[in-house]
Design goal:
This protein is an all-alpha fold and about 325 residues long. The protein contains 13 helices and two strands, in the order αααααββαααααααα. The model has no long low-confidence stretch (mean pLDDT about 85).
Length: about 325
């Protein structure tokens, strides 16, 4: 089928859009910490079932201690620190702006790839970073209301910092996850690798989810946020939202994003999948009453163009 990879990638972007909207709903009702803990717990359970069906065991059979170390570190940075920042940003500035900040993730990944792995940092990557940041700035900056200030931040500073923290966590987590994946693939016996290679990313992500869940659970037990963990079990709307988030995020979103790479170029897939901030514009306006302005529309489009340059230049 022509353009199958492109169609799957658009479906992934739609899936992330739905996950973002319902994450905002659940985060505002339960709080970022409780929301993330339950999301990680359910994701681990879903991945255990998938691993059992696809790989014959409910846990990563071939992963060594070194693989667990790297993927656990990635899960701690990405699923714990990064996602708490992301869900916290949803509570303060909403999913639309939270996802807009996530367009910085490729820039952070490029920077950490250069810093940690010695990868090249070309002028094309720097141009993409500048364009992405310009798009975000166009959305969140405006005329200053105080005397002497020509430009001021139009959203709460805490929300902006959480958005940047979420993108940083995803970018750094991606680089470390790649290191862990390389170790994982080298540890699998050569005679069975061809038959299970396409399922390994799911198994690797399970390790990340396990670490994310343990870290989230420890934080909840120490901080004891209100409402607590049990509030989720008595909140029907939050339970429905969580089911949608897990299905459209870690399950369908991740699964189909991996599938898209089999049918189209990685750059095209990544670009189409990064259009979530644009797709969120109308739903956020309808569901949460967010003001839809020409500046916000242009800013989202420019930031996505910046993301696309990382993969297409």
């Amino acid at each position: 089928m022509a353009y199958l990879g492109e169609l799957i990638s658009i479906g992934v972007a739609l899936s992330w859009t739905v996950a973002s909207l319902w994450s905002e709903i659940s985060s505002k009702r339960l709080g970022a910490q409780v929301m993330n803990t339950w999301r990680m717990a359910i994701s681990v359970a879903v991945y255990a079932v998938l691993s059992w069906v696809l790989l014959g065991a409910p846990y990563p059979v071939h992963a060594s201690a070194k693989t667990w170390m790297w993927l656990s570190l990635s899960g701690f940075i990405g699923f714990f620190l990064g996602d708490i920042c992301l869900l916290g940003s949803y509570v303060i500035i909403g999913a639309r702006l939270g996802q807009l900040f996530m367009t910085l993730a490729p820039a952070f990944a490029t920077f950490f790839g250069w810093l940690i792995l010695g990868q090249s940092l070309s002028w094309k990557s720097l141009l993409a970073m500048v364009i992405t940041m310009f798009g975000i700035g166009l959305t969140i900056l405006g005329h200053g209301h105080e005397k002497g200030k020509k430009i001021s931040l139009q959203i709460p500073l805490k929300g902006a910092l959480l958005g940047v923290g979420a993108a940083l966590g995803q970018g750094l987590g991606l680089i470390i996850s790649g290191i862990g994946m390389n170790h994982y693939l080298q540890e699998i016996p050569a005679d069975i690798l061809p038959g299970i290679e396409m399922y390994i990313p799911f198994s690797a992500n399970m390790i990340r989810c396990i670490t994310g869940f343990i870290a989230c659970l420890i934080l909840v037990l120490v901080v004891k946020p209100k409402p607590g963990m049990s509030a989720f079990l008595h909140d029907g709307k939050s339970m429905r939202a969580m089911a949608i988030v897990v299905l459209t995020g870690p399950v369908l979103g991740v699964g189909f994003s991996l599938m898209a790479l089999r049918y189209t170029a990685a750059g095209i897939a990544s670009t189409l999948q990064s259009t979530t901030p644009i797709l969120l514009l109308l739903p956020s306006h309808w569901m949460f009453g967010e003001k839809l302005t020409l500046r916000s529309i242009v800013g989202a489009i420019v930031s996505v163009i910046g993301v696309s340059l990382f993969f297409l230049l």
